[in-house]
Design goal:
By secondary structure, this protein is α/β, with parallel strands linked by helices. The protein folds into 4 domains: about 120 residues, Rossmann fold; about 160 residues, Rossmann fold (3-Layer(aba) Sandwich), CATH 3.40.50.300; about 90 residues, Helicase, Ruva Protein, domain 3; about 55 residues. Helices cover about 45% and strands about 15% of the residues. It is built from 20 helices and 16 strands. The strands form 5 sheets. The chain has a 5-stranded parallel β-sheet, with helices on both faces. It has a 5-stranded parallel β-sheet with strand order 7-10-13-6-14. It has a two-stranded antiparallel sheet with strand order 8-9. α1 links the parallel β1 and β2. The longest helix is centred in the last third of the chain and has 19 residues. The structure holds adenosine-5'-triphosphate (ATP) and magnesium ion. Adenosine-5'-triphosphate binds next to α8, α14 and α16.
Length: about 475
Amino acid sequence: MYRVLIIDDEENLVNVMKINFEKKKYQVKTAYNGKSGLKEFSKFKPHCVLTDLKMPDITGIEVLKEVKKIDFDVPVILITAYGSVESAVNAVKVGAYDFISKPFDFEILHKMVKEAIDMYLIVRNEKSYLSSEIERAFPGVVGKNRKMKEIFDIISEISGSAANILLTGQSGTGKDLVARTIHYVSKRKSGPFIVINCAAVPEDLLEAELFGYERGAFTGAMTEKPGLFEVANGGTVFLDEISEMSPKLQAKLLNAVQNREIRRVGGVKSIKIDVRFIASTNKDIEEEVAEKRFREDLYYRLNVIRINLPPLKQRKEDIPLLSSFFMKKFSLKNSKKIKGISPEALSKLMNYEYPGNVRELENIIEKGVIMEKGDYLGDETLQISLTSHSSPDSEESVGENMVKVRCLLPIENGFEHLNFMQEDAEKEIILRALALHPEMSNQEISEFLGTNRRILELRMKKHNISKKDIKG
Ligand SMILES: Nc1ncnc2c1ncn2[C@@H]1O[C@H](COP(=O)(O)OP(=O)(O)OP(=O)(O)O)[C@@H](O)[C@H]1O
Ligand SMILES: [Mg+2]
């Protein structure tokens, strides 16, 4: 149960908020002035603080500063009266999570609080990958994006089979990591996991390496030597960068993959092998096949189970988890005592494009951790690593499953119009989800959007959205 502390001198408003939050199963404590609020803070240890800006004794800004001294990470949301926007903006500059102007819709406030607490738990690593189902299944693989979860499901489902797997995805998306994970959660885990980088080894050498050779097979073959396919018996062979393999070896590999049988170089007898093949490529393999650079029959033999890893910019919701995971990893490795990632740094990380995918994010965090002198990984430290790359705000940086809300609001009284912006965003998100998944029921769409069916249907009604009008 999450704890929320509300500090405001308007007793009625405080009580209404308390009732509303309690309905949503929060534990709530209230205070009617700043000083008693701070006392309560130390005892209650809330996950989120809501404080009025103007109060009779001390201001919300002072409350904020004191709270930050006790726990830097805990989010503080300022409640402001209409017209005090300027001081609210200043409050955000000195570390408030956000602010909301009176009068406000409780649902909007609740959403803000929910997000703030989520972020807080991620930064503190409490709601970490360690506690999730996924992480328990696969140590070291992080992700909560829908496509990633589907991949995790596949990995579990195939643990008992020996079916071949083709891994595709851009460089740095985690193909290597997934290949290892598949092996280590499979029934073959006690057998060897052999990695063969098909691009790195010259053709003749690769042939001898993979298939082994008999004595006298070629000059220099003084003794017989089993190949890696034999060595891998009972385990998994990972053929990295398979599209780089020469046509001659592709033909030989086909026989091995098809019949689970190999013949050593210079040998006559066939040797049975019991291995699972996992092949990977960051090229468009279907195009390689169409262009006749890759054998079609081999492609079909390998492509029994297909796992395509999405680029990081299409799964931005994984960035906070991955960042916090890498932050911990490199803090440990470099004996640093970094406690968390600042919200500004996280926002900077969220807005970047990552042409190098997860590997690039990992490198950025590693450099940041090494350079950071404070307790928290700050945006300025990250700036150094990020500036060398291109335009974080460009159109492409918004992944296909992200909605960018362009806001054309008058600046004058701009804050009064913020609600409209939220409405617009809400409508856009629903429309996009429906267009993306025409096959899904309202129940499934609501789960996809992270809400429930009742709310989805109410919102669809409000925005006049009917499923009939949407083309997939
Ligand atoms: N989901 C993930 N969770 C945690 N770490 C990840 C994840 N995906 C990738 N990584 C890390 O990112 C780095 C790059 O991943 P990996 O080497 O598996 O990419 P790849 O797709 O094989 O890239 P390439 O095509 O360049 O060989 C590795 O250090 C890996 O551990
Ligand atoms: Mg790789």
